[in-house]
Amino acid sequence: MAEIEITGSRLSSSLSDLLMADDILPGSEPSYQLCKTIYVSHPLGGKIVDQPIKLAMSQKRKISIPGGPEERIREAFERKWKEINADAYIANTWRLAKIYGAAAIVYGAKDIDTDAPIAPEKLSKLQLYFNALDPLNTAGSLVLNQDPNAPDFQKPTVVTAAGQKYHPSRCLVFFNEAPLYIEYTNSAFGYTGRSVYQRALYPLKSFVQTMVADDMISRKVGVIVAKMKQAGSIADRAMAVFQGIKRNVVKEAQTNNVINIQPDEAIETLNLLNADGALTVGRKNILENIAAAVPQPAKLLNSESYAEGFGEGTEDAKEIVRYIEHERQTVQPLYEFFDNIVMRLAWNEEFFAALQADLPDYKRMTYNEAFYQWKNAFVAEWPSLLVEPESELVKVDDVKLKALIAAIEVLNPSLDPDNKARVIQWFEDNLNDIKHLFSNPMQLDYEALKSYVPPEPPATPGEPEPFNSKV
Questions:
Q1: How far is CA 188 from CA 99, 114, 376, in A?
Q2: Which H, E and C letters describe 59-101, residue by residue?
Q3: Which of 42, 85, 169, 248 has the highest count of CB atoms within 10 angstroms of its CB?
Q4: pLDDT digit string (tens) for 417-450?
Q5: E-strand spans in 163-223?
Q6: Long-range pairs, 235-239, Cβ under 8 A, ≥24
């Protein structure tokens, strides 16, 4: 087996196999094992997969549930989301799909068969576990039906892990790119999506060659070329020893030393200027080829610094923002899968009973009515990566506040007490979202507002009577 030594250390045999594999040509398709090798060992393997995921998930979604005690409902949801570590499972499923082309997320419960459905209202009473599965775990169950007249054409229907089947309601299959008709993916063992490395396999191999060239140059760049006058043809032992002493003097010389050489002798370093230029251009082209094949903005791969940050909205930054926004849309099914589970875990019957004790409005509602009211009102939005400066955000919030005040001034005089309370509740909900102007939320008693009757304004006092009129 071929091995490559670099300054005393060895590349892993799997990566050296990638380097020495002459049968990897443009258009070659990576296998499951080769995709794993690239992700684990290749310098760009992890970056291609993980960097978009980290950028996309670097900000939390903005959760809003209007029409109820929003703060308490949102806090319960976010607390349970963090408790089950949903972000980590989403990232891992997304990662496996990028590496191999397909992945699945499943959940189970203790003492319940994986093939049996679980009623959603019972989820909060069970000890759930989540597993992210790659194509080898699913044992080829992601081979999709290729009959164009079948109802499950190109659709995943069954997930099996080590021979154990999961009920469709308890799993979600996630592809990297959409499957193509009779296009078999070796890395995913089925007619599924494609590995992110599939189109970039050949330039990824070429990049490893530049690593070897870098190592060669780093070992050669310190070579000293001493042009010394050679001894004559009848040089004796003494002359040979003298030449060796001169070479050692050159070898050991350093700053603040003085050495003597003959006028017709010279000491130079090895000239690697041509190699440096060719290697720089070659590496740049290879990185651009990889970025085009992934596809991904080249700046994410070549680690060039940004002239300005995301906030300034340069063209490079805008391109990356558009790319990340598309990645967020792609992963939306995974978030919806966990949203539905976390809602049931967070907004359970115990949580509803606590709300009923505190809020009279909920005493007239059933648990299912309240749950579906919150679920239908649930909105989760991604914040933009182009973050505005604080001063600009304050200006935007100031405009929102003026619009709210204007709406209240127009509507309030013509409303009955019940609708006035609703308008004021709407005003409070929107006011509490203006975080840059008001740090503490407003809390009003809407029941008291409905029955509140403002006092009559005092009569305008008239002119006092002249003092002498009372005499």
A1: 9, 23, 36
A2: CCCEEECCCCCHHHHHHHHHHHHHHCCHHHHHHHHHHHHHHHC
A3: 42
A4: 777 777 777 777 777 777 666 666 676 666 666 6
A5: 164-166, 171-175
A6: none
